[in-house]
Amino acid sequence: MYRQEPFCVLLFCEEALGACRRLLQSGDFREQWKSSGRMTQQGAVLQGYNNELVKCIEDLCMQKEELNKQIQQAEEEKNKLQHEIQILNEQLECVCENLAQKVASRNELDAILAETEAAYMKILDSSRTLLNVLKKEVGSLKHTPELKTNVT
To answer: 2, 8 in Cβ contact below 8 A?
Structure first.
């Protein structure tokens, strides 16, 4: 019952301690203690308070032990997670470096491709010009009289 309701246990212990203090602080406590019938009765009450206080303290100690176990487990879990985060950060750094190298390589290839395409377009343009010039030359050769006589 007390373990499930720690605040109730504390309140009960405080009430018991308060009753003990009031009893001890009362001016006529010793006189009442010495009186024949009441001394035994008050001793029994005091013993009951003492037993309850010991039980409360034992319950609180058990709660503290359980809480210490939970704290230790939480700290172990925290350390494990921090280690995993460190490993993941190292992996992320490697992936980022690898990605940066690949992007730089791709950019170089893009530049090479652009230069190659521009050069190829110049070659195509020159080839077209050369073909047009060649066609004109061949056409003009067919119209010259020398070729006609030598061919026959």
So the answer is: yes
